[in-house]
Amino acid sequence: MNVLPDSIQVFERGWLSSNNIMLLGRHDTAIIDTGYLSHAPQTLELVRHALHGRHLDQIINTHLHSDHCGGNAILQAHFGCKTSIPVAEAEKVRHWDVEALSFKATGQRCDRFTFDATIAPGDVLTLADMEWQALAAPGHDPHSLIFYCPQEKVLASADALWENGFGVIFPELDGKSGFAEERATLDLIAGLDVKVVIPGHGAPFTDVAGALARARSRLDYLAADPLRNAQNALKVLLKFLLLERQRIPLADVPVLLTSMPVFAAANTNFLKQSPEELGKWAVSQLVRGAAARVEGEYLLNE
Ligand SMILES: [Zn+2]
């Protein structure tokens, strides 16, 4: 997208891996978010190619979902770069507390990485010769940050705002508040002067008002009945596993679902059905939405 300055390059990665934002300054280089573990070698290649022989100085994570930090370990091993994470995640990463980090809860994988610095809401970072404000963006994830560059009017919105919607509101699955936080995050974004949004997934976009209107309407829909958020989460989690594995035996779907603590919580609080019934429902929803197909005994990614 040519509305971005040359010093900002976006690798659009799809849904298994988050987008990566390369920031190529005169004196320093950084990457915001690093994708999912199974794409890590590809991430390293993309980064090396974009750097043209330069060194990667810094990794910055918006939040620590597996699809945003799964390339941290390989990039650290290759470049020995500094890594900055949201301050609220520091203790969990220091002790690699897989119970507290979201990987185990979602059945997703992430190689262990370390960090050198933390970022708190309100911090101002200088990346690629530009100032970026770190802003709190709870809702999808309570500790997520988004990064705003007033000089270029660019917003790295992570999973708080996509062109069509936003990430699953995870806290609500656990019976915690998330809808109100997401609403406040959308209000915060609406108050910024933004020319282009680089979302966590999907192409960068410029119709910020349109995206905000769609996000608010979706949030109203979900908040009106939290069961909808739980059903959406169930579909998204199964699709993520399918993206990673490409094929899943249909008979394994219920046990895969029950192995995710986040699913168990959503089921206790909202879904309230047997894993078999929910598995069948989720499979039929993915097939109906052309996100999967059934072939014999298998569910295949589409
Ligand atoms: Zn996320």
* Uncertain stretches of 5 or more adjacent residues: none
Bound molecules: zinc ion
Q: How large a portion of the residues is in β-strands, by DSSP E?
A: 15-25%
* Overall pLDDT metric: 96
Strand order of the largest sheet: 1-2-3-4-5-6
- CATH level-3 fold name of the largest domain: Metallo-beta-lactamase, Chain A
CATH class of the largest domain: Alpha Beta
Q: Any idea how many domains?
A: 2
Helical percentage? 25-40%
The CATH architecture of the largest domain would be 4-Layer Sandwich
Structural class: alpha/beta
List the helices and strands and how they pair.
Elements: E1 8-11, E2 20-24, E3 29-32, H1 40-51, E4 58-60, H2 66-69, H3 72-79, E5 82-86, H4 90-94, H5 103-106, E6 117-119, E7 124-127, E8 130-136, E9 145-149, E10 154-158, H6 170-173, H7 179-190, E11 196-199, H8 208-224, H9 226-245, E12 247-249, H10 253-258, H11 261-271, H12 275-288, E13 292-295, E14 298-301
Parallel strand pairs: 3-4, 4-5, 5-6, 10-11
Antiparallel strand pairs: 1-2, 2-3, 7-8, 8-9, 9-10, 12-14, 13-14
Helix pairs in contact: 1-3, 7-8, 8-9, 9-11, 9-12
Structural commentary:
- The protein is of the alpha/beta class and 302 residues long.
- The protein has 2 domains: 8-224, Metallo-beta-lactamase, Chain A (4-Layer Sandwich), CATH 3.60.15; 228-301, Arc Repressor Mutant, subunit A (Orthogonal Bundle).
- Helix content is 39%, strand content 20%.
- The protein has helices at residues 40-51, 66-69, 72-79, 90-94, 103-106, 170-173, 179-190, 208-224, 226-245, 253-258, 261-271, 275-288, and strands at 8-11, 20-24, 29-32, 58-60, 82-86, 117-119, 124-127, 130-136, 145-149, 154-158, 196-199, 247-249, 292-295, 298-301.
- It has a 6-stranded mixed sheet with strand order 1-2-3-4-5-6, with helices on one face.
- A hairpin with a 2-residue loop joins strand 13 (292-295) and strand 14 (298-301).
- Helix 9 packs across helix 12.
- The radius of gyration is 19 Å and the shape is globular.
- The model has no long low-confidence stretch (mean pLDDT 96).
- It binds zinc ion.
- Zinc ion is lined by residues 63, 65, 68, 140-141, 159, 167.
